[in-house]
Amino acid sequence: MLEKIRPGELTVGRKTHLDIYTKGGRLLLSRGAMISSEQQIEILMERGLVKRDYSREDHSSEFKPFRYSANVNPFLEIEELESQLETAFKQVKSSNSAAPEVFYRKIRSICSQVLGLAERSPEALLGTVHWPRHDEIPYSIHHPIQCAVLIAVISQKLNIYGEQLFSTLAATLTANLGMLHIHDKLNRQKEPLTDSQRETIHHHPQRTLEMLDSMQIKEPLWRRAVLQHHERLDGSGYPLGIKGQDLANEAKLVALADIYVALIGAREYREPMSVKSALKQLFNERGSLVGPELTKLFLNQIGIYPPGTAVKLTNGDLAVVTKRGENINTPICAGIKAMSGQAYIHPPPRDTSDPQFKILEVASKDILKPLQPFLFWGVHVRSAIEL
Asked: Which of 24, 143, 215, 230 has CA atoms 20 to 30 A from the CA of 90?
């Protein structure tokens, strides 16, 4: 059977590893042919199809998603995962000889749980990234969990799984270990960076590798994504100035999630950027950052109005987006308040593809702060595990 080419399978300057066919079955590009440009990739992604030999693919990886029941509450589970990651990071600083094995198990468990949530309840899970938070979870903990959530959800469209997916998620969680000691301070800092801080930031990927060495982490994909997550397609990144075909796809994914979460997050020295502005920035920099195909997929999966976004509708309702729609401009919402100001006891669904419920504008997140998010996704207050 002929299938579409997966994002990231074609790279400028690299040879194809599959024969590429037209819809009619005519050979379009032979295996081993060199990819010469991004324009060629766009044409092949649009017109080309490939044959896959699934009998040779290894689907037997031990890395599996954690099994949750259908009514799992991702908002509570994310708080638990943040607590687990905080414990794991404390072990990095410990001289306990048992820490390496314990650290690896904790990171693997967190990755499995994030993936399980993404498979069971992807819309509410995306909502955890965009819903306002009240607690004082350190940025160094909250940021990597949010990045892992995005990659776990998007991975379902990338067809990556097993150890490749684990290594990508693990790299996302641990990418900033090398500056863990100053990460939270930098997030609170209003003053310009000092020379010492700039040096720490520039070298933190290499420092993270050293820390992974101390934890006896040997997985090459994990390590490569950590080292390269601040590298850029045009060579403008750091610490090594890697570019083009030498930039790993896993590192590109980590970079996209890292940048997006940083842009929409609040800092002491600036207000959070709107989702629309953050996506626009990623789109404008797609050529120099990670390439157009992966960026396009990332943007389409998040959408202009991702779950957890407060909006005002044509009928006067204030509502919150609860599900991505068929079109990125027309998500499904749940009503919060009617035009009269009366709060809905049972949040009614609002399909914004219906003209009477069309989105007029994005509303302030402040209207969500006093609300319990799980009410809008129909999940239970308590977490649920499928036995």
From this structure: 230
